Structures are given as structure tokens and as C-alpha cells.
């Protein structure tokens, strides 16, 4: 073929037209845009990081007890993504006007990334009309609430309790019903001095793990990171008290410093009996204890957390994943119906517990026989909901703010230094908050 | 008349073809360079002048992101950390690679290929596995290294990954372990290209091994050393994987590099304009350092 400027331009023009034609065709092929589907088969697309949710939703789609009587019949196609990637891809797909999922699993620590710049408001359907009828009997809606509107429904209450080795407690003479942290810490210091074993752990790993551990105790004490309006409330007497107590625990050896509560060092501490107890949410029994020390089945028990002498509750929370419905799509109405059936009905909540030990978010269900009669073989056949129901009743309210991503980075280092005794608790918190305010001045 | 006209047209056409043909042949590179380099760089620079979270329209804010950047202590920390990693890479990794290559090049060395394989292994290992193993080795409570220190010297309570200073050192140890073998291969190739007669002549003149190393080996390795130094400098100035996987930039921000700072601003905090501004600054720094080092090491200079 003869090659000249005209031919070259023609070729480039043809290539450009072809490329834009492909783009247009791809856009036309997007199945998520168009008029809402009001009935019929809804092939829902779901993004999540947790295979447990994937299994639950896939099974639920064909569970007549859950979806019977609906206007839609369901199937669920799951895409697995790491927790941070769910949100990053939601944004990038939306910007590129590419297909979005109908349901998205939003890990609680990642949700603040959607709280700024109206990202949640632009991408997610307002679920407040679904949650409002339940009032405060529907737990853990606050972390996913922006300006009074709920954008995602929590899958698991993530109620924190104290897991302990009953055999080691007996051997070491630690009473199982110690009432306050202060008493337990005195006992723990003595145990650590005598045997080198610890009655709890703190994280000294990455900022997220450090701040999560601190927040869990802070919530129990009655403090918090943010208020309902997203204003920072970290600098408080409760926060100082909690950090001082944690630092004291580390210095006496009552608390073991471990980088990753799910990592190899923690597994070694659990296997060797160096860690005799730990305060963690319900899911830690599955992902932390059963995964690392399956051979210790029957040796562990759960109890409510000792109170702080100064106040607070016997309960706390850490972690969680909520599901949001992407707005203005063909299957938005169908996805709302599906999520409501799975997450806001007693049948759905019971099915979730049996599928992956996800605790109910409807507070009234904890006292029902279906849950109260459940025994846990790993915990020596303990009637575990006797513990969880007390914790759920006292569950502290947890608010998040758009700046939490920054806060984790600014207070993680100072908290770690306070835990190691290098600086005081108040100084650490002041330093972290000052750095935060320099970066997030408007909040 | 007609024949003449045809000949002239044909001649003009073939002259035109000759004129355009070279451009047509080199155009793919320039097209790709424009699409994948110039356009993103231009878009990145424009983005750095805006405030944008990914959705909606970017708000033009001029140079505010740059002003904020130079007042942000986190960015200062990341710059210092990156400088520390870069200086370490040039001052320790580079000489270590050369010395190992020199040892591997020794006459009569048995199992040479085995040693090459061993030194090259860290490069092909997955970074995830490396981070996991280093985490096990340097864990403060249950780490192998502390256990060895405890057994040998009676102390082992060093918080390798949770103390700012030690965490930085562990990161550079990882850099040393990971990249020394890779660079060794380049030096080894350079060493094997040095004519043996030069060493023999120096030996005849009475030069010992040390004198031969400094008077023959090093000057002969000049171009290879320059290439490796510039590559290492530019790569280490953009270091990301090692601190990200090992410490997540912690404790606090004490091991965070500039690349991690950009990643955090862009993909964790959705401050895309701010991340782009940091990216532009990093580009300028790396570009300037690259040019300076090319000039200092004389890369590409005709001898």
C-alpha cells in the first residue's frame, strides 16, 4: 500500500473512529443503567472482601424463607476485592461511567473514605426509610450515617467480649468474675511477674491496628472519636484514662504488645499460653482463636469485659462490614428488597448467624430462644448469647467522621509512644490531635 | 508533454513518500509517548492545581496544594525517609554488590552458578512473602532475630518494627537483602568483560590485589557503575514496596516514603489533587537527581 500523509491521516482517523465506536458499544452494553426493573429475575452484582458474605448472599438468593413472596427472583454474582479496593473501584468505575455493583460490602474502617466530598451521597441509596421503623433497636447504624441518613446496613454487630483460657485462669488463680479493669490489671501484673503470661494484648503494629485497639477500650469507657455531627471528640478525660491504663498494662507485662492480632506472633502467643485472655469482638473467635489454635477447642470461654472503675459499660465494638445499595441503577429497587429481607428480618439475621456467626443487629433477637439456646463447642458448649445479649444491650454508640483516615495516621504514632512509656497519655493525644487539626482544619 | 507530466508527478510522489516514510516509521513511539507519557504528565500537573475527590468536577485552586504540601510535616517526614533510603542504597548496597561480584568473579571459585542463583533469589521472590518472612524475623516479642540475640548476648528486647529508628533500619536491611544480588549480576557481567591482560600487566608492574582493584577494576567498571548508580538512585527515590509491606509506613509515619505519601493521599484519602501535587514534586526531584547523577557519573559521555 502506498503510504503518504493522506493515507496516514485516514488510517489514524479510522483507528480513532474505531476506538470511539468500541467505547460507545461498551457503554451501550452496560447492564446497570436504564429504567428500574420492577419485577422478574434480578441478577445482582455484589462486591465484597469476605468469602463468608459471598456464600451467605449466594445461598440467600435461592432461600425461599428469605426471598419468597418477593417481586423478584434473585441470583448473585460476587466479585472479590480487598476492603480498600471496594471503595476505590466504586469511585473509579463511577468516574469512568463503567458498570457498578448493585450491592457493595463496605468495611467499617474504610467507610469514612466515603464520608467526605459527598461520595456516599452520590453513590449510595439512602437506607433511612428502611432503618427508621426499628429506631434504636437496630444497632450499629451510626458508623454509616452521614447528616442523619443511613447509607449501609451492618452485617455483624462485632460485639466485644473477653475471651479467656478457663484452664489457665484456674491454674493461675485468676477469678473469672473480676469486675473492673483496675482489679484485673493488678492481678495481671502479678501473673506477669510470676510466670511471664499476659491477660490481654495491645497492638503495636500499623496505625490502623493501634487505633482500633485503643478505640475499642475508649468506646467501652464511654468516650469516642467523633460525635454524631462528625466533630472530633477524642481529647477527653476518658481517652486519657484509657491510654494511661493501657500503658500501665504494657509496662507491668499484664498486656502483651503484639504487632498484628491475627498474625504469626499472636498465634505463637496463643499456642504457647503466653496470652491467657484477650478482649476482642465476636468474629475474633472464628478468625483469631479457632483459626490459630483449633486444638484449644473447649479450653476457651467468653465473658463480658470488666468495667472501668470510673464508668462506662461492659461492652464495646470493633470492626464490621456493612452493605450499601448503589443508587439509580436498573436493579436498585431489587437490591433494596433483597438487602432488607436478608438484613432486617429475624429469618435473615438467624440465617446470617448460622452462615458465618454474624451477630444480629436487631437488639430484640438476642433474648429469643433461637439465639439463647445456641451453644458453642469451641467455648466448652457455653450458651454464648447469655454473654452477647448483655453486651448488645450495653453496646456503645460509635460515630465516625470523614477525617478518621487522617486521624488514624496522626494519633497512631503518639499512642504507640505512650504505650511504650515514652510520653504521657495526655501529651500523646494532644500531639496527635494537633497534627490532625493541621491536616483537617475545617473539621 | 503528457509523459513528462506523469514522470514529474511520479517523481514528486516518490519524493513525498521518501519525505514521510521515516516519520511514519518513528511515529508509533511518539504517538505512544504522547498518549501514555505527555498527556498523563500534563493531566497530572493540571490535577495538582485542583481539589478533587474523584467524583464531580475538579475545583481549580491554583497552587494551594503546593503551598499545603510544603507546610505538611508528613510530607517532610516522607522526604527525609526517602533521602535516608536513597543515601543508604548508594552508600551501602552499591559497594556491597561490587564486593560480592568481585568475590564471585574470583578464579577457581567452585559452585559459582549456585552462588549466583542464591544472590539473585530475593529479586524473584514475591514481595508479600518477603514481608511475611521479615515480619517473623524482626517481630519484637516472638521474632527470630531477638531470640538469637537473647541466646547469644542475653538481650533481645529490641522493638525492631515498632521503634522509629529500628524500623527504618529494618527497611534498609530489606532493601540491602533484596537488591544487592540483583546489582551483583550487573557488576559481575562488567567484571567479566575486563580484559585479563590489564590485570596481568598490572601484576607484572608489581601491583597487588588492592592496587589492581582500584587502578584497573574500578576504572574499567566506570560505565557499569554509573548505570547502576543512576538506576538505583532513581528507583530508590521512588521506593514503595519495602516500607509499605513491612511497616505500612509506621510506626506513626516514621518509615513512610514519598511514594507512600502519594498513594495515601490519592487512594486512601481521595485527595487526588494533593496527591498529584506531591507526584509532580517527586517527579521534579527525581528528574533533577537523575540529571545530576548522569552528569556526575558521566553516563553517555564519550571517552
| Low-pLDDT segments, ≥5 res of chain A | 20-30
Gyration radius of chain A (Cα, Å) is 25 Å
CATH superfamily heading of the largest domain in chain A = Periplasmic binding protein-like II
Mean pLDDT of chain B: 88
How many DSSP H or I helices of chain B?
13
Give a quick account of the main beta sheet of chain B: strands, pairing sense, barrel closure.
2 strands, antiparallel
Per the CATH scheme, the topology name of the largest domain in chain B is MetI-like fold
What is the CATH architecture term of the largest domain in chain B?
Answer: Orthogonal Bundle
Strand content of chain A: 5-15%
Q: Helicity of chain B, in percent? A: over 70%
Q: Which CATH architecture of the largest domain in chain A would you pick?
A: 3-Layer(aba) Sandwich
Q: How would you sum up the global shape of chain B?
A: flat
If helices are DSSP runs of H or I spanning 4 or more residues, what is the number of helices of chain A?
19
What does this 3D model show about the protein?
The complex is a heterodimer of chains A (443) and B (303). In chain A, the strands form five sheets. A five-stranded mixed β-sheet of chain A has the order 2-1-3-13-6, with helices on both faces. In chain A, strands 7, 10, 11 and 12 form a four-stranded antiparallel β-sheet that branches. Chain A has a two-stranded antiparallel sheet with strand order 4-5. Chain A is of the alpha+beta class and 443 residues long. Chain A is globular. The N and C termini of chain A lie far apart (65 Å). In chain A, 48% of the residues are buried. Chain A has 19 helices and 15 strands. Chain A has two domains: 167 residues, Periplasmic binding protein-like II (D-Maltodextrin-Binding Protein, domain 2, 3-Layer(aba) Sandwich); 220 residues, D-Maltodextrin-Binding Protein, domain 2, CATH 3.40.190.10. By secondary structure, chain B is an all-alpha fold. In chain B, β1 and β2 form a beta hairpin. In chain B, α2 crosses α13. Chain B is flat and about 70 Å long. Chain B starts with a helix and ends in a 6-residue tail after the last helix. The mean pLDDT of chain B is 88. The interface between A and B is large, with 46 and 39 residues.
